[in-house]
Amino acid sequence: MNSQKKGVRKVIPIIPQPKSESADAEMVSLYAAQRKIYPRSVSGLFSNWRWGMVFFTQLVFYGMPWLEWGQRQAVLFDLGTRRFYIFGLVLYPQDFIYLAGLLVISALSLFLFTAVAGRLWCGYACPQTVYTEMFLWIEKKIEGDRSARMRRDGQPWNLDKGLRKGAKHFVWIVVALWTGFTFVGYFTPIKELGHEFVQMSMSSWEVFWTFFYGFATYGNAGFMREQVCIHMCPYARFQSAMFDKDTLVVTYDQERGEPRGARSRKADPSELNLGACIDCTLCVQVCPTGIDIRQGLQYECIGCGACADVCDTVMDKMGYARGLVKYSTENAMSQHWTKSQTLRHVFRPRILIYTAILGAIVIAMLVSLSLRIPFKVDVVRDRGVMARMVAGGKIENVYRLQVMNATESTQRYKIAVTGLPNLAVMSDDVVTIESTQSHWVAVRVQAPHDVAAPGSHTIQFHIDSLDSPGKLIEKSAFLVPR
Fold first, then answer.
1. Contact 276, 355 (CB under 8 A)
2. Would you place residue 9 in the very low, low, confident or very high pLDDT band (cuts 50, 70, 90)?
3. Nearest to 288 by CA among 221, 339, 371
4. pLDDT the model gives residue 194
5. 3-state DSSP call for residue 410?
6. Cβ–Cβ contacts within 10 Å for residue 165, how many?
7. E strand or H helix at 238
8. What is the distance between the alpha carbons of residues 72 and 76, in angstroms, rounded to a whole number?
C-alpha cells in the first residue's frame, strides 16, 4: 500500500552548497571571435564589371591631377586663394550653391541606384571596395592563391614567409603613399608637390595629409577590409529602407537549389532527390564579406555578384542551367517571372519619380553653369568714412567693391550707379582685373545736397564687363546727413 496520500507532494528541502573558487566568476565574451576571410579569385561577367570600375575610377583619380588646362592644372582646389579650378570653370566660395547641388545629385543617385539594384555603389565603385580589390590582387600575386595564403598563414615563420609578407606590405605601403600623394595633389599643384617631395621641402600639412590618407588606405584596404563595410559604413544599416520587393539583389534560388548535396557530374539529381546546389561552398569562398548567400539576403552583402559568377561556373561544369545565384527580385522569385517581366517591374513609379527629379536637378545645374556670369561683385560701405559734404555742396558716400574675375583672361569692368537723381561715380569708373584675381576698389559716389530727405536710401551699382558678356546689379545704401 502506498504510504503517500494521493495529491500530496513530498517537499525535499534544498541545502545550499558552498561555491568553489572556480565558480565565483564566469567569463562571458560579448564579442564573437573574428575569423580572417580569404576571398577566392573569381572570373565572370560581374567580376569584369567590377575590375572595369576599378580601372576607370583609379584612372580618373590618379590621372586627373596630371591633366593641364591652359597653363594650370585642370582640376585644382586651391584653398589658399579660395579658388577652385575645374577645367574651364573657376569657382569661388560664393559658388557654394553648386557644391550643394552636387551633394543633392549624389544623394538622389544613391537612392535611385539602391532602389533599382541594391548596393551597386558598394559592390562596384566604393573606394573601400576598389582599394580592397587592388590590395587583394597584390596579395595574390605575391603570396599565391587562397589555399596558398591559408596554408602559409598556418605555418610557422620562415624565410619564404617573411620575404613574401615583407614584399606584400612594402608594395601596399607604396600604393597607399602614392594614393595619399595624389590626394594632396588636388589641393597643391601636383608638379609643384613633386618638386617639394624631391627637395624634402613639403609643408607640414602636406606631409600630414599624405601620410594620413596613405595610412587610412593601408589600414582599411589591407587589414580592416570587410569590417569597414559591416561595422563602420552607415549605408549597410539604412539600405533596407530603400529596398522593396522589386529591387534587384543577389538572390539564391532556394526552390531550385534545395535540398543541396554533393554528387558526381553523371548523377541524376532527381534520382538522388537533390536540387541543383552541389554544396561546394565556392559562393562562400569568393564572398569578400564571408557570408553564405544561400541563407538569404543579409545586410553584409555588398552586391558585388562574385557568388553569381562562381556559381555559374559550377553550373556549367555540372551541365546545369545557369542562374542558381543571380540578380533578381523578391517578387520575381516568388512569382516565377521571366527576365522581361522582372525588368518591367523594376522600372516602377518610384524609380521614374527618382529619375525625373534627378534629371531635372542635373539639367538645372547645367543651365545655371552655362548662364553663370563669369565675375562677382561684393559692395561694402567704407566704415572709416561716413556720409560727408564735399566741395560744390555735394554729399559723398564712399564704398568698397570687391570685384572677382572668374575668367582666365584679363577683364575690364565699368561701374555705374542709379537709385537717386544725379548720382555720379566720381572715382575711376573702369577697373581692370587680371585673370582669376579679385581686388578691392574704392568708389566715391556723390549727389546734390538736396537729392533726398535725410536718412538711408537704396541705390544700385551696375557693373558691366567690357570684354565679355555679363552684367551685375548690387544694392547698397546712400546716406544723406541731417
1. no
2. very low
3. 221
4. 94
5. coil
6. 16
7. helix 235-238
8. 9
Write the CB contacts of 364 (distance below 8 Å, at least 6 apart in sequence): 101
d(CA 425, CA 443): 7
Measured CA distances, 185 to 181, 209, 315 (Å): 6, 10, 48
Domain ranges of the chain: 45-239, 244-336, 375-480
Q: How far apart are CA 369 and CA 361, in angstroms?
A: 12
C-alpha pair distances (Å), 396 with each of 69, 383, 384, 416, 417:
45, 13, 13, 15, 13
Mean pLDDT of 149-168: 94
Phi and psi angles of residue 413, each rounded to the nearest 5 degrees, phi first: -130, 135
Q: What pLDDT is attached to residue 63?
A: 96
Whole-angstrom Cα distance, residue 321 to residue 251? 15
Which residue has cell 586663394?
81
**Is-cis flag, bond preceding 269, omega within 30?**
no
Give dist(CA 301, CA 58) in Å, integer. 24
Residue 124 has pLDDT above 70, yes or no: yes
**Do 404 and 435 contact (CB within 8 A), yes or no?**
no
What distance, in Å, lies between the first and last C-alpha atoms of the chain? Answer: 125
Q: Which residues contact 370 (CB under 8 A, 6 or more apart)?
A: none
∠ CA 331-337-338, nearest 5°, is 140
How far apart (Å, rounded) are the C-alpha atoms in residues 230 and 62? 27
Q: Is residue 429's pLDDT more than 50?
A: yes
Does 29 or 214 have the greater pLDDT score?
Answer: 214
Res. 31 pLDDT band, cuts 50 70 90: low
What is the enclosing helix (H) or strand (E) of 422? none
Cα(286)–Cα(304) distance, rounded to whole angstroms? 10
The dihedral over CA atoms of 146, 148, 153, 155, expressed in degrees to the nearest 10, equals 150
CATH no. of 375-480: 2.60.40.10
Sort strands 83-86 and 89-91 into parallel, antiparallel or unpaired. antiparallel
Q: Are strands 424-425 and 471-480 parallel, antiparallel or unpaired?
A: unpaired
| 339 contacts: CB under 8 Å, gap ≥ 6 | none
| 3 state DSSP class of 375 | strand
Place of cell 537717386: 420
Q: How far is CA 140 from the centre of its chain?
A: 27
**Tens-digit pLDDT profile for residues 443-475:** 999 999 888 888 899 999 999 999 888 899 999
**Per-residue model confidence as pLDDT tens digits over 341-400:** 998 898 899 899 999 999 999 999 999 988 888 888 989 887 777 788 888 889 999 999
| Confidence check: pLDDT of 115 > 70 | yes
Chain-wide mean pLDDT for the chain? 89
